[in-house]
Specification:
Strand content: 15-25%
Strand order of the largest sheet: 26-38-37-36-27-34-35
Distance between the termini: 55 Å
Radius of gyration: 33 Å
Number of strands: 38
Mean pLDDT: 80
Low-confidence stretches: 1-12, 64-93, 125-131, 202-206
Structural class: alpha/beta
Length: about 850
Amino acid sequence: MEHTHAEKPGSSGLVDPVCGMKVDPATAKFRTEYEGKSYFFCCAGCLSKFSANPQQILSAPPKPMGSGMVSLGMVQGIAAAPAKPAATAGKGDARIYVCPMCEGIRQVGPGPCPKCGMALEPESLAVPTTRTEWTCPMHAEIVRSGPGNCPICGMALEPRTVTAAEEENPELRDMTRRFWIGVGLTAPLLVIAMGSMLSPHSFMASPWPSVLPWLELILATPVVLWCGWPFFQRGWASIVNRSTNMFTLIAMGTGVAYVFSLVATIFPGIFPASFRTMADRPDVYFEAAAAIVTLVLLGQVMELRARSQTSSAIRALLDLSPKMARVIAGDGSERDIPLDQVQVGEKLRVRPGEKVPVDGAVLEGSSAVDESMITGESIPVEKTAGSRLIGATVNGHGALVMRAERVGSETMLAQIVKLVSQAQRTRAPIQRLADRVAGWFVPAVIAIAVLTFVAWAVFGPEPRFAHAIVNAVAVLIIACPCALGLATPMAIMVGTGRGAHAGVLIRNAEALETLEKVDTIVFDKTGTLTEGKPKVVAYSDAEVLRLAASVERASEHPLAAAIVEMARKQNLRLSEISGFEYLAGTGVKAIVDGKRIAAGNRALMTEIGVFGAGRKEGVLVGGGPGATQVYVAIDGQYAGHIAVTDPLKRNAAAALRELKAQGVRLVMLTGDNQTTAQEIARAVGIEDFKAEVLPAQKSEIVKVLQKEGHVVAMAGDGINDAPALALAQVGIAMGTGTDVALESAGITLLKGDLEGILRARKLSQATMSNIRQNLFFAFIYNSIGVPIAAGVLYPFFGLLLSPILAAAAMSFSSVSVIANSLRLRRVRL
């Protein structure tokens, strides 16, 4: 037998292919064989992960030797990042900002997106121990190390991470200041420009006709050139980057109006008669240019305020953390310290009614802890010595002493926030429609503006060129590609935040979009339909139980834990083992006290020749028809078996009935025998089930269903489910499951209940409906607004759209899309 290729030159040992730790084959307890090679592992966890998908592990870049992965420390099934040394905990860098429209824009600090010009947003909401990058709210691929503009859409970049305390947005502060200065100068400018219409006999009507343009110039110049300067910067950047956007149109529209008016004021005599009014002077449009800038600034301020609310759900999660923690010093004294000063390994006291400060384990005391704010579970969870605690949950009646294990950005709450924030930056497939339109939208609008100018200059009434300029500017100003670009990202951001509050973690937007289309859901039995907390109810004899427990102690399977627990309750002495092998989907083998022990299902017994060919199973004991049978063989001979039961999850049958009422086909897969599988399926109301299914067969069954034209979701919680979770259109992981299952799924149910699938489907349906509404509005707005601005109503009704009204409409279009997306915060799940 050939050893694994992970051997390092000059070393006396091999390397664990999963984590990179050095392993000595002579003493290694965990090994398996794959494609004629032997692989050795540092622990049962690495062996289990390798067995679930060996090809993926071996094809990945080799881990540096000794880089050993730290256990992810499951608490309610959510994987927290490895704990950092205490010296570095609580310290952080600047935040990362991204663009909501432009994927790839990342930078540190706020600013406009260099592509689309939108203000960048925080990539993720996290405790202030994370490095800051900047991103575009419309293009998540735009990531910068500092503030700036999105190179695609021109929007200001925003931080990718936001602290629990809501901080002032520098982009909002700057735009607000520019807006109010613009208002102060534009108001008198409009009075001067429209004074003759308001009061024909006023001093503005005739005495100083040659002076008024100069007054307008003085008032309009600071508005256009200072208040509107960010728009010109972003417009120019869009041309340099060859990525025209909304700010290209704004810069062109206001620039044309201002420059034309400037020339008309200084050199009025150079214009032909077609430009002149009855006063024998060309009209000036300073008030239009200034009003456009001011209204666009108003729209930016409103949009930035509305966009800040899209992250309110995540910020609310962060607000759950307490501000202080009570630390117990080595001499027994106690003192309160700020939460960010808590270090890994410190002892903390949690008094009745207080919030648990960080993730850790109970050292002393007992209590019931309310975890509803994290998992959605309304019933308090009993905690005793050794129990896991989640930061931000609420202690009940008892006092607890705990050990801090994960602090700062490594806590469960911070990891949940990170997952949700990452999901908010992913792009749903429906976004591709908007992306295709955006590619030609701005060039098309510019072409329409040119055609509008030519048509009015040739066929329009006198003054023809004056009408041509006004209508061309209106076309440039009214078009709003941002409404189109924001339609999907804003709904995804709000929807994923709403899901987090309901205990539904969305890992990517594609899963959220696809879930509403799912017509078939495949369920693993153990840990998905059942509690995943099996108990031994019967066994052949104590020696069979002792030998099986000695082997199963090296396994992470839920049934293994139940067998080991029963052996310990019976005070049985467990032996050391060697040559441990984990056989995915069938069982385990090892040498115990010089005997070859195999423990597993009927398939394993058949494979090693214990069952079949005239061999007898022996006398079966207890457990009932719903019990799982673990058979035990000693030196190739059947020795007995152990009966294990796993209760069904509360409300499982009711949730599945509701799914069936929605027209969803339900399929149950299990490695149990036909009798056990039939009993469980009958209890939950599933008619389509398959028993004695191996892990690889789960993926094959999903493939068959997909080939039949079904949109398949896979719900599971174990390592054996990971390939099927990854293969299904939507993978749904139970929050009480393993790291591998969680990483393979697009949706995680924190509480691990089947009613979470109903909540996730409602969220998917509501979010996709909202996205379609946004896209419909954006398409209709631009499809109707641009022709009206071009003057199509003039031949029929004599109506023309003022550039000022066009600016107001454009500014409010983006705000309307965001406001509609915010309605998802109130959807009932």
